[in-house]
Amino acid sequence: MTPMLEVNAVSVRYPDRAVIESLSFSLASGQIGCLLGHSGCGKTTMLRAIAGFETPAAGEIRIDGEVVASASTMLPPEARRIGMVFQDYALFPHLNVTDNIGFGLRALSAAERTARIGEMLALVGLEDECRRFPHELSGGQQQRVALARALATRPRLMLLDEPFSNLDAELRERLGLEVRDILKAAGTTAILVTHDQHEAFAVADVVGVMVDGQIRQWASPYSLYHQPVDRHVANFIGEGVLLPGVVNASAQIEFELGRFDGPTPAHCGVDGCRVDVLVRPDDVQHDDASPVRATVLARAFRGAEFLYTLALPSGQKVLSLVPSHHNHAVGEEIGIRLELEHAVAYVRE
Amino acid sequence: MKQLVLVPLAAALLAGLAYAESVTVYSARNEQLIKPLFDAFTKDTGIEVKVLTDKEGPLMERLKAEGTNSPADMLITVDAGNLWQAGKQGLLKPIESKTLNENVPAHLRDPKGEWYGLSIRARTIFYNPATVKPADLSTYEDLADPKWQGKLCLRTSKKVYNQSLVAMMIAQYGEPKTEKIVRGWVANLAAPVFADDTKMLEAIAAGQCQVGVANSYYYGRIVAKDPKFPVKLFWANQNAGGVHVNVSGAGVTRYAKNEKGAIKLIEWLSGDKAQNLYADKDMEFPVNPKVKPDDLVAGWGPFKPSIINMSKAGELQGKATQLMDRAGYK
Amino acid sequence: MSSRLLPSRGVLCALPIALLTVVPLLVVLSSLLDPQAEVWSHLLDYVLPGVLWNTLLLVVGVGAGVLLLGVPLAWLTAVCTFPGRRFFGWALMLPLAMPAYVLAFVQVGLLDFTGPVQTLLRSAFGTSAWFPQIRSTGGVILVLSMAFYPYVYLLARNAFLTQGRRAIEAAQTLGMSRRRAFFVVAVPMARPWLIGGVTLALMETLADFGTVSIFNFDTFTTAIYKAWFALFNLPAASQLASLLVMFVLMLVALEQWGRGARSYQVRSAHAERIALHGRLRWLATLWCGTVLLLAFVVPMMQLLVWVKGVWADDFDARYPAFIGRSLLLAVMAALLVTLLALVLAYARRRYRDAGTHWLVRLATLGYAVPGTVLAVGVFIPVAWLDNVLLAALRPFGLEALAIFKGTLAVMLLALAARFLAVGFQPVDTAMQRITRSQEEAARSLGLNGRQVAARLYLPLLRGGLLSAALLVFVDVLKEMPITLMTRAFGWDTLAVRVFEMTSEGMWDRAALPSLFIVLAGLVPVVLLIRKTES
After folding, report:
1. Is the ipTM reported for this complex over the cut 0.85?
2. pTM of the model
């Protein structure tokens, strides 16, 4: 089966610099992808290139097998049959909700259009607001209108550019799940661009971490968290620290918290190769029986859990996620134990 | 857009066919003053007059740009300086006319016959009789005397009438003396110079100042409406070269299509009927010595005009303007 | 990248329109090749120092004046509530219909030594010596500010109506007082609109001759006229005009540089009006009333008094034709200029290259050139073209003296060259308010360029287009030099009548055509108002 979206070695260059260098990925039909990265990493540019608002300098973009951008082809945005949700929603201020949603449906008969708008209003739960104008809606409602407007035309591919960044945190999380449900219900392939990993994990099936115009890792949220390919991704995704360690003769990794099996990093000779080991807060378990002692430096209450910042005897800091009935004061010494299936380690730089 | 071009184009073409029976005039004298004369001319002769009004400068540029294709047969201005300038720029054509030579005194027409004065505009002294006795007044030069300090009102030097006045003074006295006189005027001013003669005359009436210089017909217009207007006219320089006069006048254009018609019109304008109309319509003085001025105007008494040839006004206008700039006359 | 050497499509769009202005300007600029040493040494010694200083005072003074009048009035009527707000909302735009020279003549007439105010003071107190001289720098700044503030008022009001209240509320939540918020948030947010309004006011001020003449206030423009009409040196006059054009270009570049990369796209938002209380509300009413009285009611009454005196003599059968031509010219010029302004604003938005940008700037320079100078700049190439064509066609039996000269088409193109800036400002600011994402959203919904224009641009630009058309309409009604220079024989308009009367100082008789100009101008002003009322 052909992927719904294929991006093959695409580069986008501005007069003064390259924004995207030879970037590739693909999405299967119905899959929700995400480009995750700090601002300026090129993620929005990539999205706009897929939409047709930027012209790639090299490479090829296919939607549903059709070449929409290549050295010889540049299909204009309106011919790509895509839907797009903008960061500022870009609702049309002179049209009410119904007309905004129906904006792209001019090819349909009046009856079909009304029916389709009705479906969309139901899908996003805005039936009661259909006569309102954009400025009369809340941020979340505007967001849903933007989504419904883009979905109404049954696009082959939905593009979402930081769609939740204008919303408050609570709404962001709820709407993220809602949007995922709506997209899945519509069976739409989508790609989301964001700098917020929670948003990415909540919405996307597969996430690409972008740095300097390139995708460092293209994987499921689970893999990104547990097997980040490099220290940059490891730092960017989730919380955690890197502790110094050494590869021993039996290809195990030894460091302050113990000795673990793990794939040793490439380019790392066995025995004596110095590495950094990724330690996630959920890997560090509270265990009073453990010989390893650490001092509580700081703690953050998260409801069900505490996130403790601990100092190891060597002075190294680690984070630990502990059920909240283990209430320890700052300065207290507690026992910890590291639970790792495989250590994830990178060659020390 | 096509029709926008074609309709007026067609109109222009039709107008082109009709111009043999008409005279086309570019006039800086405004329409309400000149139109009644043209109407009377058409009635007398059957020749139609088409007129286009604008300021002198643009009219001359128009003539220059149009060159041989200019529809204009005749140029009318309200001062001699601009006529002289038009002549200098080669926009006028010298004509020979016995009638004009008889009707227009020699100093009021161009020696080469390129233009002819048609009405006289006298620029003289006005005073407030409550504060000034006629015996105190004599000449334009005298207004520079310190005794008038804080009592004099003048119109702006940007108006051509003052440029002509100073030009004629340069012709009479030379530049150094004239500049001294103009500096004296500026030192005597009671108020910033005025934008027009009417406002200046009103300032004399209101007592803001006591004396000033204006064209007589502006005064005439006010007095015709308000006979009790408390300002009197004094004929300047009666023993020193005469009252400064300017002319409004006309010349035939270089590429006139209907030269004969244009000459006929100018001749007619210098004749009795037109000269009377000139006098009535704007209270100017006729150039034709055989014609009497309007009653109200005649009431100001006879006066001796300056008889330096008007072409001096044109020749020296630039110098006069520069002189007034130097003297700080705004 | 090979297309780099070819002009962009934006340049191709903007070039023909820019030529309308650029050709006459080039005619003016060509004078630079013809140095006039003698006149220049005189001008440099005795004329320019004074007029440069005066012009500077005028630009600074009128710039500050129109802001001080326009911004608070716009703020009060757009954002606050006070007695008479609705009335003042539209009434304060009325001075737009009043020609500046009429306002100037009336104000000087009223407030000078001989006027009724000082006469009354003298009869009461024996002297009016302490009364400030109206024919002074202060006076001319005051009158020009009153005449041109509606440009700022109109544009600032649009800005405040759409964003003001919400912005203030946002700032207040950040702990700012309302007063501070006005200066720190609302005014800076309205900057493109304010700049647009002030630019129009200053360009008109720089090019103004009629008003400053009434004050006998020497400016750069009066120096241009002096060089031409008094020193008979058109090349020197054109050289001065070229300097003026370059000065304006510099200002434009400076503004551009100052604006930098800031973006002013805003989303419309609604919020509560600010209710003024106590003495403040009546002060607001009083302030609005005073401005309206001085800038419109008083000159209007004076016009009516004069008209009463001359109506019987002057109103004749030709007036319907004068009015008809004025309206025809104004309507057609308004439509043409609005269309051209739309193309320019679109080209500038769509094609962001420097070539397009500067062509658009050049195209809108005509407003800063004194009308008569621009008129000559228009007439010379048209007459030249006619001469060439006539010479070529004469062998084929064409017997005519004009082909394009004196046609309505040339008149309209010349007026367009003069008033493009007036039309461009409101269209361009409206265009800036359509966000890039709105346009992209429409494209991503399957609309092609033309459909985006029809379904997104036109509805969202309607207000700006209407403002443009109406401003141009009113300006063309009042315009004199270009109408005089390009009209056909006998094709006189109301403005031509005003010229005929005022050129001989017959202000009372000029009142009749002036009144018709004001009345004709009121129709669009009222329309404009209904559009912006929300």
Report:
1. yes
2. 0.80
